[in-house]
Design goal:
elongated; single chain; mainly alpha; 182 residues; 6 helices; two-stranded antiparallel ribbon
């Protein structure tokens, strides 16, 4: 019984209020990007981006804790902290790839997939406590997603033809409105 108590009673390297703040920041930053995607009626919206961002932050926090865990002291293990970034990018890339669809010679979901990948990076930054990078990245993402979309529409950069990152629906070949591209 004592071993069980010791297993769950050991302190963490990162104080709980700091952990909570990092996870809440990841939630807030992921929500900001997800809200924009939700507002544009995209398949991966608010909840998806929040979950990706919080998951990445959790992996980052777990990495910090593993590095400082007593069971790995005294050189019993060697750590490469870059592996967390590799793991998160691979996992989120898998999810983002599932959002991208190729239909009727057009790519849909590319911007949403990229947003999910970026949410993963923001989550890792939040989890590692690098909130300045996460905040600035969130602001940049919102600028790109909001203002550049309006700019593209004003200039009609795609000449009325939906492409990978356009949010403007266009008529399909049969005269029916095409699915809303991303």
């Amino acid at each position: 019984m004592e071993q069980l108590v010791n297993e769950f009673a050991h302190p963490t390297y990162t104080p709980f209020p700091v952990m909570a703040a990092r996870l809440l920041l990841a939630t807030l930053f992921g929500a900001a990007i997800g809200f924009e995607r939700e507002w544009r009626n995209r398949p991966a919206g608010l909840r998806t981006h929040i979950l990706v961002c919080v998951a990445a932050a959790t992996f980052a926090l777990l990495t910090i804790e593993i590095v400082h865990a007593p069971m790995f002291e005294m050189g019993a293990s060697q750590f490469d902290p870059i592996r967390i970034i590799e793991a998160v990018t691979a996992g989120v890339a898998f999810l983002a790839a599932g959002v991208v669809i190729f239909t009727r010679g057009q790519i849909h979901g590319l911007t949403t997939g990229a947003g999910m990948w970026l949410a993963g990076a923001i989550g890792v930054g939040s989890g590692l406590g690098l909130w300045q990078i996460s905040l600035f990245t969130t602001v940049l993402a919102l600028i790109v997603l909001t203002f550049l979309h309006s700019f593209e529409r004003r200039l009609d950069l795609n000449n009325g033809t939906p492409i990978g990152n356009s949010d403007t629906p266009d008529e399909g070949k049969e005269g029916k409105p095409a699915a809303k591209p991303d």
